Amino acid sequence: MNHDKLNAEERLALAEADSRQSNGEYFGNIVREQIARRSLLKGFGVATGAAMVPAIFAEGKAHAAAHGAALTFTPILPNGLDQITVPVGYTHNVVVAWGDPMFPGVPAFDLNAQTPAKQNQQFGFNCDFLVQMPLPPWFTRPSRLRSWALGMQFQRLFTKPTRKALLWVNHEYTSGTEMFPGYTDANPTADQVNIELAAHAGSLVTIENTAQGWVVDKSSVFNRRITGETPMKIDGPAAGSPLLQTSTDPTGRTVNGMLNNCGGGWTPWGTILTAEENFDQYFANRAGASAEKQAFYARLPAPSGASERKWERFHDRFDLGKEPNEFAKFGYVVEIDPYDPTSTPVKHTALGRIKHEAASMTLSKAGNAVVYSGDDARFEYLYKFVSAGQFSSADREGNMSLLSEGTLYVAKFNADGTGVWMPLVAGVGPLTAEAGFASQADVCVNTRKAADLLGATKMDRPEDVDVSPVTGKVYMACTNNSARNAVAADAGEVKANPRLGNRWGHIVEISETNADNAAVTFNWEILMLCGDPAIASQATYFAGFDPSKVSKLACPDNLDFDLDGNLWIATDGMPNAPGFTGLNDGIFAVPVEGPDRGHVRQFLSSVPGCEVASLKHSTDERTLFATIQHPGEGAGLPNPQSAWPDGTNNPPRPAVVAVRHLANRKIGS
Question: Is 638's pLDDT higher than 50?
Fold first, then answer.
């Protein structure tokens, strides 16, 4: 429901709810709630990183175990309307959309007058992963914030709550036909290419909670655009390797920009992780590279001829015939410090080079940083990274190097419901020099081939991965795989991907041994086989819950947890699944513990042509943020499928929406 459409009674209720919000709560609680959501509070208060479960985490766990997680909202019916639909009692507003100015004095969005300079200061295109980060009200200058951050201990920081926060948003990709009137794929202009480069990567905006909803504060010193041209550092085993050395960077330790940033995560030391996914599509002329280089890139190849976007016409670094090693500088998890606008983003090669859908982080019992990531393509793998060092709440600067060194693992699912994390280490097992892995740099750059040699389990497009803040269990969304049309020889692969022609996707639940995320073994089961339970041939399954009482869903993509341990699911491609034609993608919620385990209910319906690319609860759980990516995609300008969010005679614009309860209740209640 739009604020513009609220009646007088609803406006009054919303204003009263805003006036009551969080009065008297201190900042330490807000941050602890945010961290608990991602299971990061284990060991948070101990400088050594030893195991500890703070009270807020333990209480949530006990509540869920005793009562099950409660969801009381009235589910909506799926629809194909060109508007956001949320349950009765809820409202939403658009927080920020493509082209919105992020800084004072920046011109308003004008479809017919875009320039690279303007786009560098405006919100980027196709928003994806997002996360809200806390911002204390008394930090008005970056210098003060950096001083605090060096010895940051969130749980000891007390202050009155603020209506302001930081919001990070990925910008996954661009589409010229949806951005430029008269655009032709075969002949883009230099300006169009450079606008697209500027519209990639990510935006950091300061947002304020008002009676009209969350809005952007353009005057904030923390607002920042990171683009496809922003200078970045490269660290980890591949940094400095000849594999990454180029004519413009003979050191192999720097790169300009990040591309196709899809999912992500965040760390307990207050940084953002953003993951490069389908980076291969930006490069061209694989046939122009040496035979040796072509063989090295074979498991994740660039186009043999021209790229779809033709960027190589204006930037030599995207032409493998001219700069073959530039290709090896993309496909990583990138770490960004939102509290220091002058900081340089870091690409962590230790986490491998794949099509990262996510970078979901937690801590092991010993305090090691653990990052889970799916490789989003058909028949690809699930990975996790375990840092060599341990988190320290007293040493933020030291924590910044945790993702530089550690062990990367790939998952093997066995038919009996057990599994093993296999280490991807050069010189160990089949990863020999003769096989092409003379150093760990080779493993980090050619990660897929290394995983092949270990016999990892091929999955149905493993996308987002998230960790329950209540149980520590790990959940992986496998979006779909219509190409799975034959029975695999590996019984574990069959059991973990149990449906041929899987157009609807499924979710796998993983329990690490001894509830330790650094464990090398695990147990697993299917939580959900998505689809329409009314169609028997789809063989749906909802953790044993009565399928006649659930909302139908397909193509699970991105995940988030609330503090009760309910799993929230965003979908991508649902309208293309059999039984879902004409319906929009949406957001669904499902308890994973207690008597309601498997009871899926639809919470939001989006607009035609889009996906709900990401979702995230606010720190106080009274807002659900969601990214509406590529609304109206398909037909292109001037006749897109959608006019959202600005209405008729305006181009559709990717945007972030914020959903709230009219009485300021917790989302889902």
Answer: yes
